[in-house]
Structure formats: C-alpha cells, structure tokens
Amino acid sequence: MIRHLFKLIWNKKRAHSLLIIEIWASFMVLFGLASLLVHNLSNYREPLGFSYEYVWVVDLNNNQDTVAVAEKTQRIIQRINAFPEVASSSRMSDNSPFSANTMNNNVERGNRKTMMDFYVTDEKFADVLEIPLASGRWYTPADSIGKYRAVVINQKAKEKLFDDEDPVGQLLGDKPKGNDGSRQQKIVGVIDNFKAKGEFMTNMPAIFQQLDAKESYHKKILVKVKPGTDAVFEAKLVKAVTAMATGWSVDVDHLTESCENRHNLTLVPAIIFVIVCSFLLINVALGLFGVLNVSITRRRGEIGLRRALGATERSISWQFVGEMWVLATFALVLGLVLACQFPLLNVFDLASSVYVIAIIVAALIVYLLVTICALFPSRQAAAIQPAVALHEE
Amino acid sequence: MIKLTNIEKVYRTSSIETLALTNINLTINAGEFISIMGPSGCGKSTLMNLMGLLDAPSAGQVEIDGRIVMQYRDKELALLRNQQIGFIFQSFHLINDLSVLDNVEIPLLYRKGDATGPRSVGASRRQLAQEALEKVGLSNRMKHFPGQLSGGQKQRVAIARAIVGRPSIILADEPTGNLDSAMGNEIMAILQQLNTEGSTIVMVTHDETMAKKTHRLIRLFDGAMVGDSKLISDLRFGISDVSAGNVISEPSNPKS
Ligand SMILES: Nc1ncnc2c1ncn2[C@@H]1O[C@H](COP(=O)(O)OP(=O)(O)OP(=O)(O)O)[C@@H](O)[C@H]1O
Ligand SMILES: [Mg+2]
C-alpha cells in the first residue's frame, strides 16, 4: 500500500508541487512563530536569580552640583538607612534591575575573552536582592583594601571562562592597568543567575565589581523597605534627601512596577506578532483546506472506484492522509534546508536548541494541520455511495 | 447467489425525483450467465449497482449468498465487494495516474490485513495481476498508462481488474458497448471462459447477438422487469421464452 501511495504521488508530482509550496510556506511561518515563543519561554523558565519585592530604586542626580558629591552621597545613604521603614539598602551603578541602562565589558582570562554585563555594586547588593551564592561569598568591606578588586561572576560567566574549574580565588585580566584599575580583579564568589532585564531576558554572563564608596559615580540606591510601607513614606524620603543636598533631584521607582513595564516591552510585541501570525496561519490553513477539498472532491470518482473494489471508508481516508503526509514530508525537507540556516549562520543570536525545538513544534503542527485538512474532505467523500461517486465522474 | 426482493430505487435531487427501478424480484443462481437488456435509461446500471453493493435500494432487500446485506456495515460491505464481486464498469473507471499493472493490483491491495482473505503481499500480488492481464491478452501493455490505451484495451484492463481477485460474481455493465464487433466477440469469449470456470456473470448489453450467447435474458423497461427468459444458446429458438421464462408484456420487443 505504501509503494502504491508513492507511485500515485510520484505520477502526479506536477499537480502536487503547488500543495508542497503551500505546506512549505505554512511551515516557515510556524517555524518563525515557534522560534519566538520557544525563545521567550525558555528564557522565562530560567530563574530570575533575585527577588525584587519591596525594593525601590532611589536614583540620585547631582545635576550642576559637583562639590563633594561622594561625601554627600554617603551621607544620604546613611540618612536613608536611618528610617525605620528601611530594611536595608545597596548602592550600585546605573544599570539597576529592569532599567533601560546596560553596561558591557569584555572580560579576559588567558586567551579566553567574553562579553559580559558589568555591574558595580556595594557589599549589601546580594543581601538586598536576596541573591543566593552558588559558591564562594559576596565581597565584604574588608575586600576594598585588598591587593585585588573583588568581583563576583554568575554561572554563565563561569561557563564561558572556566568550564569545570572552580573560579573562586582566580584572577581575571592579564595585567594591571589604568589608574584605579591598577588592581587586578579577583573572583570571590559565584551566583546562579542574574536576569536584570526581567523574566524574558536571556540569561547572560555577568560580572559584579565592588563599588568604591569614595567614588562620585554610581548613585543609584536600591532600598528594601519593610512590608506595608507606602507612598507616604516615599514622599517623606524624597523630601529628606532633597533637603540634604541642594540642587539634587531624586527619582523613586518601585521594582515591581519597573519589572512589569519591562515584561510588557517583550510581551506586547510578541502578542502582536502571535496575533498577526495566527491570522496568517488561519489563512494558510483555510487555503490548504480549500486546495485539498477541491483536489479530493475532484477525485471522487477514484474514491468511488476504490470503494467498489473493496476499500473501506477508513482505508480511503488513510490513503489521503498518507498522501498528505508524504507531501508534507517533502515540504518539510525543503523547509528544513532553510530553517537550518538560522542556527548555522546564527542569524538572530539565539541558542540552536531554540531552533531545534521550533522546527519540531512547527513540523508537528504541519502534520496535524494536513491530517485534519485531508481527513475531513476524504471522510466526506468516502461516506457517499460508491455508485453515486462513480456517477459524478 | 444474488437475490433481489421487491427492490425499488428512487433518485432524489433537490428538484426532481426519478423512479429508476420498481418492484424488482430476481434470483440469480450460482454459475449462471445472465444478460440484461433494455432501452437507455431504463435502470440497467442502477440494477447492476444494487447487485454490486455500490448503492443502497430505496426499498426492498438484497441478499448475497443467503446473507441479507442491508444491515451490513461499511467494513463487511467492503469485504463482500472485494472478495465476492468483480465489477466491470460501463466507462472503465481506470486511474489514469497509475500504470495498467498497478490498476489491476488495486483490489488485492485492499485484501491485506483482513483475516479471511489470502494475505497477498508484493510479489504474489504482482504475479496475480500479471496472470489476469495475460488472460485478457494484455501482457505486453503492463507498463502503459490508461491514457496510452485504446478503448478495447482499457476495457480489457477493467476486466483484468475485475477478475484478479477471483470473485464468484462478475457484474459487467456493457463490457462490449464501446467496442467493434471483433473486439466485442473477444471480450465475450473471455467472459464465457470465466463462466465455464465457475463464475456467475451478469452482463448488461444492447447487442442481441451477445445476449443470445448467455443462459438467461432479463428485460427491463422504465425501471420494471418486463421479461425473464431462459435461453438455449441455440439459434433455432431465437430469443423467445423457452421454459421457465415468464415473459410479461414486452413493449420493447418488436416480436410481440
Ligand atoms: N445518480 C443519479 N441521480 C439521479 N438520477 C439518476 C442517477 N443515476 C441514474 N439516474 C436516473 O435513473 C434512470 C436509470 O439510469 P441508469 O443509469 O440505470 O440507466 P441505464 O439503463 O444504465 O442506461 P444506459 O443504457 O444509457 O446506460 C435514468 O432515468 C437516470 O436519469
Ligand atoms: Mg448504464
């Protein structure tokens, strides 16, 4: 029966080429859609790596004031910590969680080199964001006077530079350079994940460097407030801070809100894309259904004949489903040649596993689609009396 | 072998109703060679379709081998069509996208997997199809496609396809209608040969001389049976009632 099917398909290859193209097109649309969804979903499945509940970002801006900025900043932090509503706080660089800012550094170790998200934070950062340590420890005030600059990296960064080696205690960069950068970086700890841009961000290599309290940059303060603290306190905090440094301004963001905004930045375009693709897909499915319906109806005579010769209704529908599967397989082979270029040429900088899963998902949906599109018209055609079907030819 | 009781067939479309057959009572015994005659549109093909289980009557009962098939489900009907009945259609109905050999093999394909029939696999299927084609004298056209054959050759392919599964009943709807007399005689000879080998044959024909070569002649007029006569394949008796034939009024018969 399978040989019979192949002969039948081969002998009508020209009539089938249009169908193959149609199936191929729907596969490509599905593949694109599935890649996007699988990519975001696999990102989403990775733990965020930190907790942001009750954490506010207080962004200090010294504006025109350039006198004793570092000292003022330190005093403001002391003031903030003195509020009974504040559980703890941590000073960091501008690229706070869920913000639009990013900092990258090329980090070298021997002949290995990799691009990493670069954060400058103080000693309480891990504490405020409740970041668990996979190994080693977070840096302490004692590290600030050591021979090396203390850094913490995440698991992804460890994979890039160390494979299975233990990175704790290792030095980064080949030689001391620059003014205060004269101190070489030394890894004191490793954390798991840090997806600063939210759940849908790809888990990137990241490095955290100890902040020098005497610096005048890096004036974002993560403030963890006690549960139940509200906007009244926010106003009080802003008032207190602006009173301490004339000419400075303060912005307060709640991380829960920034997180939501961040997610919407990913979700909204994704949802629009999904809707557009769904319509496209419905169109393709309808088109496929129409083409198959016509071609199966045109073969009613053949169906009647086969039934007259002893085919059951089931074997008729399976014949058509089988034919469609063979055609779909042809189309998928064509589609695969194209789809494989994405991971091979690394077109969108996504993990190749994303494409593999997307290909499998798209292929399954294509098979499902053609099965449905072949099953219904052929069932209908097989249900009419053979004599009637033959009469129509 | 085949028994029709009080058969009526009405074709209903949205606008018109056609009474194609009415009050048909007919018993066909094993080994008989029967011809059916009647003017165009009188219901001959309809009757053949009912006997071949290709359509259901509007009223009445069809029995094959003593089994009432009216209640049969699709699977059982398919089995009967496949094993008991070989159908030769008025208009061949070959699949143009398949070679002659592949066309002839089709009935055997639907035999696979059913418990009662011989499980015919690849090579033996091929073998049987070749034998059937040899029988109809087409062994030199097996790789051809139907489009490359003459009408007579197509008809012979259709016969090969009907006999390849060795059915006990062969239903032939005007097998010689599209052929010249020489080719017609050839086809007739094949059918007679099959009949002597034990097949029950029912044949629709317009050709009196073909009908004369059979055992029994059924006449239809306007959907009703108007004649059923036993023939002796002897020209002295002509086409007249001989014995058991209960000839009803026969308006189409010029002799009456
Ligand atoms: N599928 C159908 N739908 C409606 N009417 C039909 C259908 N098939 C046949 N008929 C009608 O039933 C009647 C009998 O048709 P049938 O095909 O049995 O005639 P026939 O005796 O085989 O004629 P011919 O010698 O021309 O082949 C005709 O009047 C025809 O119009
Ligand atoms: Mg007819």
TrEMBL record, chain A:
The chain crosses the membrane at residues 20-38, 267-292, 324-348, 354-376. InterPro entries: ABC3_permease_C, MacB_PCD, Macrolide_Exporter_MacB. It comes from Fibrella forsythiae. Its main location: membrane. It is found in: Cell membrane. It is a multi-pass membrane protein. Keywords: Cell membrane, Membrane, Transmembrane, Transmembrane helix. Residues 77-231 form the MacB-like periplasmic core domain. This is ABC transporter permease. Belongs to the ABC-4 integral membrane protein family. Residues 278-386 form the ABC3 transporter permease C-terminal domain.
TrEMBL record, chain B:
SMART domains: AAA. Signal peptide: none annotated. The keyword Protein biosynthesis does not apply. One of its GO terms (molecular function) is ATP binding. SUPFAM superfamilies: P-loop containing nucleoside triphosphate hydrolases. Gene3D superfamilies: P-loop containing nucleotide triphosphate hydrolases. The keyword Transport applies. Keywords: ATP-binding, Nucleotide-binding, Transport. Residues 2-247 form the ABC transporter domain. It comes from the Bacteria. Pfam families: ABC_tran (PF00005). PANTHER family: ABC TRANSPORTER ATP-BINDING PROTEIN YTRE, IMPORT ATP-BINDING PROTEIN. This is ABC transporter ATP-binding protein. It comes from Fibrella forsythiae.
